[in-house]
Amino acid sequence: MDKTKAVHAVKQTLLAFVLVTIGVVIGKEMTLRRLQDMPSPSGNAQGNQVVVYYAHATIRCVTCETIERLTHETLDEQFSQALAAGTLVFKDVDFQRDAAFAKKYEVMANCVIVSRIESGYERAYRRLDQVWELYPDPPAFKRYVGDAIGAYLAALSGGDA
């Protein structure tokens, strides 16, 4: 009978472990979904805009500074009207100090992220990881980043993205 009680106790323990694990997984998924659906602060009345994030580490190298500079140049050269209108916003984020941001966008290294906000909610985003490959070629870099931003701005105007 002692062996039967021991087997029963092990079964109960394993069942409890499985249930707790399932609860943790569901909780994490719900948190991630809530983060994605959180209203985003918006500078315009309708809450429709494209946000360009430059996600960087606390300590920045020369290459990181170059990527940020090229991103600013792209915004100024290609999207000055959208910047002035508040339809396009630039934000730099230290992903090492903002764990929720890093988790939401799966950031592990410096990158540029383009996010489309509609009615105050993020509807889509794209992480532009190729900036690391393209920074030595500024025209290619600016085309790559500009195309992503342009597509999201077009989507705000009723296009597809």
Molecular structure report:
The protein is α+β, with helices and mostly antiparallel strands and 161 residues long. It has a 4-stranded mixed sheet. It contains 6 helices and 4 strands. It is elongated and about 80 Å long. It starts with a helix and ends in a 5-residue tail after the last helix. Helices cover 54% and strands 19% of the residues. About 7% of the residues have low confidence.
Nutshell version of this structure?
The protein is an alpha+beta fold.
| Strand-residue proportion | 15-25%
Strands, total number: 4
SSE-based structural type: alpha+beta
Number of helices: 6
| Oligomeric status | single chain
Can you list the strand order of the major beta sheet? 2-1-3-4
- Over all CA atoms, what is the radius of gyration? 22 Å
Keywords:
alpha+beta; 19% strand; 161 residues; elongated; four-stranded mixed β-sheet; 54% helix
What is the topology?
Layout: H1 2-36, E1 49-56, H2 62-78, H3 80-85, E2 88-94, H4 99-104, E3 111-118, E4 121-128, H5 131-134, H6 138-156
Parallel strand pairs: 1-2
Antiparallel strand pairs: 1-3, 3-4
Helix pairs in contact: 2-6
